[in-house]
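Can't paste images in this forum, so I'm doing it all in text. The chain is below; anyone willing to post the predicted structure tokens underneath?
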Amino acid sequence: MGQDNKSQTPSTFLLVGIPGLEHLHVWIGIPFCSMYLLATVGNVTILAVVRAERSLHEPMFLFLCMLSVTDLVLSTSTLPRMLCLFWFGARDIALDACLTQMFFIHSFTAMESGFFLAMAIDRYVAICHPLRHTTILTHARIAKMGASVIFRGVAFFSPHPILLMELPYCRTRVIAHTYCEFMAVVKLACVDTGATKRYSLSVASVISSCDGFLIAASYVLILKAVFRLPSREASFKALGTCGSHVCVILVFYSTAVFTFLTHRFGHNVAPQIHIFIANMYLLVPPFLNPIVYGIRTKKIREYVLRFLSVEAA
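Text version of the structure:
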């Protein structure tokens, strides 16, 4: 009977934040908040510019808008709640809010990966088949690719909150994390969750490895085409663009892979290092994407500067 009383699904969980660094939460929140504000302004600017300028209704910019929406949802589903924890000590999070946050984090992380792949495919077609770019990537095909990425994220990660809702919890309701991550919550269950963990890790590893392989293959083909360009200036320009894209993608995948491997094998990794890096792959790409894909893109930069000069006048 005592076991039955203890093995109930709690109405709230308690978030710890970054274990061992609780005394630095206030200070850690400052750069996190700055990155969130810059990510929000940058991604909203990209969406506004592409919507206002019809000449930007091209495959690259349409995929960029999809990525911007994903970044906004991903960062907004985590950062405001995290800052409440860091600055106001608001540790309690309701079960429904926790599971909703979990769904958004995991499904939109998968969408982020999918849109990186879509943009890599767009760059491959634009550089390797420039004359057929608009005929291959029509608006209808772009819409289908975007819908496929969204469907994949929703379909594979909808089971996560459902599976956790069915579990009994008898150990503790304290989540040693800054947000409701699936693996951090499932550890609190008082039944064998081996199959549930394997499902989550398998889905994450299949999606990330398939997307990562196809992105790498796209950029290898792009580089081969770039080195065959007759103009050295054109080659350097294409390499600069691809290099910045690859850097953002590497940040996203390296931090995600580190988090995955830590869950699977890294039991000796300090919790604060694991959780800090887990925050990085939710914070850094939304912050960097508008800079790398937006500000460094000539058409968007020119439109923003033109708009600012008109407003100043």
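Residues 11-308 form a domain with the Rhopdopsin 7-helix transmembrane proteins fold (CATH 1.20.1070.10). Residues 197 and 249 are 26 Å apart (CA to CA).
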